Structures are given as structure tokens and as C-alpha cells.
Amino acid sequence: MRITNIGARPVGEGHPAYIVAEIGINHNGDLDLARQLIDAAAAGRCDAVKFQKRTPDRCVPLSQRNLIRETPWGTMTLATPSSRAATPMCSGPAPPKA
Fold it and tell me: What global pTM score does this model have?
């Protein structure tokens, strides 16, 4: 089996599993909740987290793009990007393993 690296971490046969926590959209657009979910994943010794992102140009029909809707992120059209969170928390190295 081939060994590869994710960052500085070797992954493959003979190495611990690389664990990714699926956060998806469970933060409901709330940055504080997203941070709490990241912290919970780190406390659970996950190596990474995964969020969902959609590309409105690809997934929203033209006839629906300008309709105003209530969403967990506020009032907006479906063409408005829902990812309003900054990424500094996600760009650094994972906390050390206990």
C-alpha cells in the first residue's frame, strides 16, 4: 500500500487512521457554533473537519436565484453564498494528540 502525507502527517499502512469529523451544515450559519463543533472534533482527537459548501451557479436554477428566502443565515436569495465564516481557525495545525 502506498503511503501519502496530509500536511506533515503520514497516512497509509502502518500509520494511524486519519479521522475527519463531518460538520456539514450543522453549524446552521452560526460562527460560534461552528467553532464549538471544531473544538469538539479536536477534543475527540479528530485530525480534520469537513464542512459543506455549495456553488449557487451550479445548483440553483435560474428561475430560483433571485427569490428572497429566510435561511439559517438570514434573509437572502439562494444565489447568495452561505459561507459567511472566516477561516483562521481552520488554517492552522491540529492540536497535539494527547
Answer: 0.58
